[in-house]
UniProtKB/TrEMBL annotation:
Gene3D superfamilies referenced in this protein's UniProt entry, alphabetically: Uncharacterised protein PF01937, DUF89, domain 2, Uncharacterised protein PF01937, DUF89, domain 3
InterPro entries, per database record: ARMT-1-like_metal-bd_sf, ARMT1-like_metal-bd, PH1575-like
Pfam assignment, any one: ARMT1-like_dom
Damage-control phosphatase ARMT1-like metal-binding domain location: 4-282
Coiled-coil features, chain-numbered ranges: none
Origin: domain of life: Bacteria
Identification of the protein by name: Damage-control phosphatase ARMT1-like metal-binding domain-containing protein
Length: 305
């Protein structure tokens, strides 16, 4: 997915917010960062997806301030807050599993998608606990049935993680896939960017004790294929099922890698228009290669450097 003009105000707001986080007491440096970002943004290729653009802002702030993990405190707090909710959620999943007409995987997926609200790259008001308390079955039953049809005992399931806090809810999904006999791998970013989960977060929330966790190699808030390591691309190629969490991963992979299940919240006007859904709606979607993309939806060769 390319970067639209509607993305420009969001990128400028992000620059202001992150400049203030990186150097809260230096207004001159804040202004310098925002002005420099405006110049940089004007030179970038808008055919690239938004996550590919966003990494340039993170790099600029690191160069200007030396601050490499702007949201560390925020990330830790999100993980702690969501972890406190887990006993109740696990009980609800267990009850769902015990019901004759229950669907524990669907409920775990609904919870995990609600977690995608925890995104510091957008400005969207939400009440996480209220959303969880009033969870509704909103995801596409057709896509859910497709997912179930692709799952079998021993299936290699790769989950592309997204944000902190959200990663805690993703553990519910991992547990359901494992109960179905799947071999689960969870992927995190290799470098801090916005509030995306890294290996440090996976260790902190206990994901590494639950399943195999790998780094994708990317320094972007989305799985930009050209920035993945060859080793990670091989893991993607060998997966029987890929479940992509979050809007950034959807933006990076839609039209590039067919058959990926994308689970995320609609969090901006552009995605609302693309999906035909309202802001705040849960999305469960299976990707197709965009035949009109002049880059032909090509997937990088995993054997290349």
């Amino acid at each position: 997915m390319d970067t639209a003009l509607d993305c420009m105000p969001c990128f400028m707001k992000m620059a202001v917010r992150e400049a203030r986080l990186a150097c809260p007491d230096d207004i001159v440096l804040q202004q310098d960062i925002v002005v420099e970002w405006g110049k940089t943004l004007a030179k970038l290729d808008l055919n690239d997806p938004p996550p590919a653009i966003a990494r340039h802002l993170a790099e600029l702030i690191r160069i200007k301030t030396g601050c490499g993990d702007l949201y560390r405190d925020d990330k830790d707090e999100a993980n702690r807050c969501v972890a406190a909710l887990m006993p109740g959620l696990e009980a609800r999943i267990a009850q769902e599993r015990a019901n004759d007409d229950g669907d524990a995987l669907a409920l775990a997926l609904e919870f995990a998608i609600i977690g995608n609200y925890i995104d510091r790259g957008v400005e969207l008001e939400f009440d996480l606990e209220e959303e969880i308390s009033n969870v509704a079955r909103t995801i596409s039953p057709e896509v859910l049935n497709s997912l179930k049809g692709d799952i079998f005992s021993g299936a290699k399931v790769l989950i592309l993680g997204d944000n902190t806090g959200e990663i805690v809810l993703d553990k519910l999904l991992v547990k359901e896939f494992k109960r179905m006999g799947c071999d689960v791998t969870f992927a995190v970013r290799s470098y801090p960017v916005i509030n995306d989960a890294t290996m440090e977060d996976a260790v902190t929330v206990g994901m590494t004790r639950l399943c195999r966790v790998v780094e994708s190699g990317v320094d972007t808030p989305g799985t930009i294929l050209e920035r993945c390591t060859p080793e990670f691309l091989k893991i993607m190629e060998q997966a029987d099922v890929i479940l992509s969490k979050g809007l950034g991963n959807f933006e990076a992979l839609d039209g590039r890698w067919p058959g990926i299940y994308c689970a995320f919240k609609v969090k901006c006007k552009r995605i609302a228009e693309k999906t035909g859904l309202d802001l705040g709606t849960s999305v469960f979607y299976k990707t197709k290669v965009d035949e009109t993309d002049d880059r032909d939806g090509g997937v990088p060769d995993a054997s290349s450097d």
